[in-house]
Design a protein that fits this description.
Distance between the termini: 122 Å
Structural class: alpha+beta
Strand content: 15-25%
Shape: elongated
């Protein structure tokens, strides 16, 4: 900032009028005092604007102004009133060189004995910060004629270091023995001051009582682009001050006319090229020789760049503060005493404590559990010694007494001087991550146990197959001999049970391979239609034994040669068909295969297995595809089974890039479906027709389908229609005999006897 000071009246005209007035009043001595007071003001202004001796090595700044030797005797003393420096004017008028004076006591060396006590009192009061007026003192001087005593008017002013502490005095003196010499010197000093005013490296401007510009130095002209001639006579506030500061500047100028001075005031001034420059000004009242205010002088400093930098710093600070507050990570800070002084929104969110609730609280004592306090405090203390900590875990307790795990980076916080003032912590809420890690550990344990179980099952299954195959082989040898009816019944029961056990062992082996990820599908050419029909043939005897109709349909014109794993597909068919037969007591089981989607290289088929069985409840459907799970798992259940078939079938379907599902209602039968994707076969395939092609009988062929079962009847009709045969359906032979005959039409009779008739026959 700019230290406030008072300016000497600018311009030679004002100075000349003052001297003339002094001459007329015959008050030359008072004029000298007035002049020295103004010179003192100049010294004070330069003390605030030109820096300290440390900034200008080899010279004391009060002795110089813009590199120019100060025109009055001037010397500096330290706190003990010993000379530090002694300018050339002092040498000329006092007769002592700088080297003679340096280090000597001002009181003992140059002050007359009679005036020493009073001078000492005045200088000590000035050292205490008290404003001291000009006073006269008898001082010893050295000239060509020897030592003499001269009356010298002196004005001391405190000299301060950068922190504002008084470290000495700057004393301006003038030999006032000769009044005429003083007045001549006054004129010369005024000229010097006017030059210094004009060439000062600080913007200086003045206005009269009406606010019109009457002073405008070279510096203010250079920063605004307006010359002195262009602005003199203009209203400062209306013409040159930018809004919205215009009225406030007008107010302080009016106050300056009343002697109320203002310093460190920012004044925005418009430049000639329509920019705004910010000048930090200090105002001083201008008075005429009678002491009446005639205007105001402003001495300033161009702080435009500083202001822009300050605005930018404020913007960056606001952005950083906003970033901290809105960061998706808990950020908090403590001071050197461990008290919270930063607490962002995320920290408030995860703990439930608002910023106002935690500021000023001891973070460790209030929010850390007792078992972690010592460790956390040690981390913060290390950070306060400059040793940061990274990836440090500790728990925070929330407002509702929950525990939140935080992963923290603690960084030392410093002020502009580099002194450590606290710690800033940037954290991460790892509560959920910690929970997932614990779950993952439990999962790994469970997987290890499952792998051990699978390995055990696989080993046991292999071990069980060897003796079981021996049992089945030996039983078959017994069955090939002459046996009584009772013996054959026993051996057939052995065979049935052994086969069931073998199926179970095979299912367990498949399950363990799937769980271990070691089950791989083969990829060979096969006919999908053939696999379906073989599966139906395999379970047809079971259906016949229960009196169930079993039928299938796959449109005969569809190409069914594909590349895939026929054994796993057959296993799915057998599992679904066996289940449907097991849970169906009356009616039929029906399998339908339909193409669903095809690309240039692959085909997707949808397989549906219908039955008219007992159906499955919605709750039971949720258990169907779980391993070792059954809809009815009670000890009194009617239907047996291990609960592995559907689970394995679903796994096989998914390995074939498909899926499996069920639709069912209790008492209304069930529909099990699955999809599978196969590669198209490169082997060409032609649609095969029976050896006797009924289409050769003529352009129109009619057939009569005789069967009681509606599902079977519909299946046969769909086959015939695919062969371009017109079919008529009847329930029995009598109905077929009653059909009208049409001349010239070849009729085909397709008789499908019911299962009941086959069983009775």
């Amino acid at each position: 900032g700019v230290t406030p000071w008072r300016m000497v009246e600018g311009g030679m005209e004002a100075m000349t009028k003052e001297i003339e007035h002094l001459r007329q009043q015959n008050e030359a001595l008072q004029g000298s005092v007035t002049s020295l007071r103004k010179e003192l003001d100049v010294l004070r202004s330069r003390e605030g604007g030109q820096g300290t001796a440390s900034e200008h090595p080899g010279m004391e700044s009060p002795l110089y102004m813009n590199g120019r030797e100060f025109p009055l005797p001037c010397w500096c003393v330290d706190a003990n009133l010993k000379f530090l420096s002694w300018n050339e004017r002092s040498c000329e008028q006092m007769g002592y060189t700088d080297s003679n004076a340096k280090g000597k006591s001002m009181l003992d060396w140059v002050v007359g004995l009679d005036t020493r006590p009073s001078v000492q009192d005045v200088l000590e009061r000035c050292m205490g910060g008290e404003d001291v007026e000009l006073f006269e003192v008898v001082m010893h001087t050295a000239g060509a004629a020897g030592f003499s005593e001269e009356m010298v008017a002196i004005a001391p002013t405190p000299k301060r270091d950068k922190s504002g502490k008084i470290v000495g005095l700057v004393v301006v003196g003038r030999v006032v023995t000769s009044r005429v010499a003083m007045m001549q010197e006054k004129i010369r000093v005024a000229q010097e001051l006017q030059i210094l005013f004009e060439t000062a490296n600080a913007p200086i401007f003045g206005v009269d009582k009406d606010g019109l510009v009457n002073e405008w130095n070279e510096k203010v002209a250079s920063i605004t682009g307006y010359s002195k001639d262009e602005v003199v006579g203009l209203d400062l506030c209306d013409a040159l001050v930018a809004e919205p500061a215009r009225e406030s500047i007008r107010t302080v100028c009016n106050e300056g006319l009343r002697g109320i001075l203002t310093s460190n005031l920012e004044c925005p001034i418009k430049t000639k090229n329509n920019r705004i420059v910010i000048v930090l000004i200090a105002l001083s009242t201008r008075r005429d020789v009678t002491g009446n205010p005639v205007g105001v002088v402003a001495v300033g400093q161009d702080i435009t760049d500083h202001k822009r930098a300050e605005i930018e710093r404020s913007r960056v600070y606001e952005e950083l503060a906003n970033f901290i507050d809105t960061a998706n990570a808990p950020i908090f800070g403590i001071d050197a005493s461990g008290l919270v002084n930063e607490w962002n929104n995320k920290a408030a969110e995860i703990t439930g404590f608002g910023r106002e609730e935690v500021l000023g609280k001891d973070l460790v004592e209030v929010y850390i559990s007792a078992d972690f306090r010592m460790t956390v405090r040690e981390v913060f203390e290390n950070a306060l010694e400059g040793k940061g900590a990274a990836n440090f875990e500790f728990p925070l307790y929330t407002k509702d007494n929950r525990r939140v795990e935080v992963l923290l980076n603690a960084t030392t916080r410093r002020d502009v001087t580099g002194a450590i003032v606290g710690v800033i912590g940037v954290g991460q809420d790892i509560t959920e991550k910690r929970r997932l890690m614990e779950q993952e550990a439990l999962l790994l344990q469970a997987q290890a146990a499952n792998d051990a179980k699978s390995q055990f099952l696989a080993t046991m299954s292999h071990e069980m197959r060897t003796p079981l195959n021996v049992i089945m082989g030996m039983n078959q040898l017994v069955m090939d001999t002459e046996l009584t009816a009772e013996q054959r019944k026993f051996t057939e029961q052995i065979k049935t049970s052994a086969e069931s056990l073998l199926f179970l062992i095979n299912d367990i082996l498949d399950l363990t391979k799937i769980e271990a990820g070691k089950l791989e599908l083969v990829s060979i050419d096969f006919d999908l239609r053939q696999v379906m029909e073989e599966a139906v043939d395999s379970v047809a005897s079971k259906a016949l034994q229960k009196g169930l109709e079993i039928c299938s349909y796959l449109k005969p014109t569809i190409h069914t040669q594909v590349v895939g794993d026929p054994d796993r597909l057959r296993q799915i068919f057998l599992n679904l068909l066996s289940n449907s037969i097991k849970f169906t007591d009356v009616g039929q089981v029906y399998i339908l295969v339909e193409p669903e989607e095809a690309t240039a290289t692959h085909e997707t088929f949808r397989f549906k297995v219908y039955d008219s069985g007992i159906g499955i409840s919605e709750e039971g459907q949720k258990k169907l595809f779980s391993r070792f799970s059954q809809v009815d798992s009670s000890t009194t259940r009617i239907y047996g089974g291990t609960g592995l078939g559907l689970a394995i079938s679903k796994q096989f379907s998914e390995l074939m890039d498909g899926s499996m599902g069920v639709q069912s209602d209790v008492g209304s039968g069930s529909l099990f479906w699955f999809t599978a994707v196969f590669r198209k076969s490169a082997i060409p395939q032609e649609v095969q027709f029976p050896p006797f092609d009924i289409r050769s009988a003529g352009p129109k062929v009619e057939a009569v389908v005789v069967t009681k079962n509606e599902t079977l009847r519909n299946s046969v009709v769909r086959y015939l229609e695919a062969l371009q045969v017109v079919a008529t359906c009847v329930a029995d032979i009598d109905g077929a005999a009653k059909l009208p005959k049409t001349d010239g039409v070849y009729r085909v009779l397709v008789a499908c006897p019911s299962v009941e008739a086959m069983v009775k026959g």
